[in-house]
Amino acid sequence: MSLEPDATTSRTGARPLIKSVEMRLAAFAFLTLWVPMHAQNPLKLRVDATDATRRLFHVRMSVPVKSGPVTLLYPQWIPGEHAPTGPIANLVGLKVQGGGNAIPWKRDSVNMFAFHIDVPAGISAVDVAFDFIAPPDAEGFSSGASTTTELAVLNWNQVLLYPQGVPADSLQIQAALKVPPGWRYGTALPIQRESGNEIEFQPAPLTTIVDSPVSAGAHYKTFDLGTEGDIPHYLHVAADSDRALEAPNEVVEHFRNLVKETGALFGARHYRSYHFLYTLSDHVAHFGLEHHESSDDRTGERSLIDPDVLRASAYLLPHEMVHSWNGKYRRPAGLTAHGQDGGYDVPMKGDLLWVYEGLTNYLGEILAPRSGLWSPEDYRESLAGTAAELDNKAGRTWRPLEDTAVAAQTLYESGDDYGSLRRSVDYYPEGTLIWLEADVLIRQLSKGARSLDDFCRSFHGGASGKIEMKTYEFADVVAALNAVQPYDWAGFLNQRLHSTDSRAPLGGITGSGWKLVYDGVRSDFWKAYEDRRKYADLSYSIGLQVREDGSIVDARYGGPAQEAGVTPAVKLIAVNGRQFTPTVLREAVAAAKPVDLLVKDGEFYKSLHIDYTGGEKYPHLVRDETNPDLLSAIIAAKVKR
Ligand SMILES: [Zn+2]
Fold first, then answer.
1. Is residue 527 within 8 Å of residue 535, measured between CB atoms?
2. Tens digits of per-residue pLDDT, 10-21?
3. What would the 3-class secondary structure string for 542-563 be?
4. 68, 97, 251, 437: which one has the fewest Cβ atoms less than 10 Å from its Cβ?
5. Of 196, 245, 200, which Cα lies nearest the Cα of 218?
6. How far is the CA of 80 from the centre of ligand 1 (A)?
7. CA of 119 to the centre of ligand 1 (A)
8. How far is the CA of 360 from the centre of ligand 1 (A)?
């Protein structure tokens, strides 16, 4: 472990430590007036990650308690994951002791995340020990694969128990972490001291600990992304090789632009310092998870050195950073229980995720071209793909958008098969369309004087430099929009949230001077997107998404292949009598003649005839000269450079 040269405090964003004993005592005297018992006696947490390369974390805790019945909880509902995804099955070897004697524990028979103990008289703290098994190549979010032999991402919620009944905001935790010798690390959690490969952090509330993951690795590099209004920003990269760290200067410059563009968009920053924990590996789960002062971003190993790999995920870091404002600072009331007086056992309500995730999706995507991470053409190709996906979903006629948000906790884990009929977490991509339309409407109604940027400055602005959370409800969003531009925003939003129209809301695209078309051109953007997803996407021609090995990811419900009898998850063996490869299939479709398929379904083979002759079709946006080009104005850089 190590830091970038002489960066101990600045890179963690720690405020200068109180230097003199007098000041320390004065601060302590002040704190004792109001801080509850747990703040004076912090829960001590030591995590030994030296076996992370063997996928084991060793945990030792000292938990302040009173004698009598005590319940220890393992975090269940994980902030940002909107679901009860705490990996409780991977907690093993649990032992509890008090005063040197074993204390038996009993798991609750209903709540699998709760352990009951009976603390003997005279005991003021119990010692808790357990191991956490980090999963192998598993998909999922933070509970997916998070370690390789070269790196590890530690999410504290996976390696702690906390006593029930103490609000997460006032339970103080003094955490320490031991990383494998020689590894470097990064985190937003302020550091108290370090020696050798051990780091001791400043005491912080449980909320902040859970919100502050650590990345570490043998191949590690920290890039300074610049200080804006005294607030520093860092890009910490952990990778499976040194080569993967060799980001060209112009790529790092795009991330510096991103920091500046977020300042122009929001006008305030609700963090002490900001840290991208960017993990580059083909063997960890790929996703991003937002935090107030950092984000846990994971993509392929070559993301910083191969422009096509970066292009396919360039929206990710902008998206996660936007969440510091939209998701952490401003949060739907239904998603905040753990941060106020509850614990992580309180179920979340996702009905406003079309703001939390949907607006973030829109803003993250427009920040990519504003920062230079995407070209304007890349952005338009991405938007065309989003529009096409939503405009070709049979599930729209039974499931309104709001239900995808309410049911978020079931949809993240649902399969891709018949995805067009089920619908998925559509509040992300459809949020892009709805918020684009709102942006265009504000620009049109105000005759170019205002835009959604003004909404962001008023809704997400305020005082800079400290962690804060302000909750909201539907009516607050409507009121904030009305304050920027009077309009029937409640009617606008309700119509789009409750519609069972078979077609997607494309008013933002047409209103901004563009239209959705399909042709046979498979763009570089589309190829990059197919490479990232590891399948060929012929959704808008014969209606198939198919992997290299022939397995069908999905057959679009109501599309030519599905109508001809192709079922999701079967295997494509041959196309027009020739062994299947993605190229053989594409060329058969491009020939604009009916296609014969041989598919394998379990032990049985079927010949299927698809009477489709329309050629290859991929979505694009083309300019509609009858309307002014607002889209190009929306994605243009706002900060001069
Ligand atoms: Zn998000």
1. no
2. 323 332 332 233
3. CCEEEECCCEEEEECCCCHHHH
4. 68
5. 245
6. 7
7. 41
8. 6
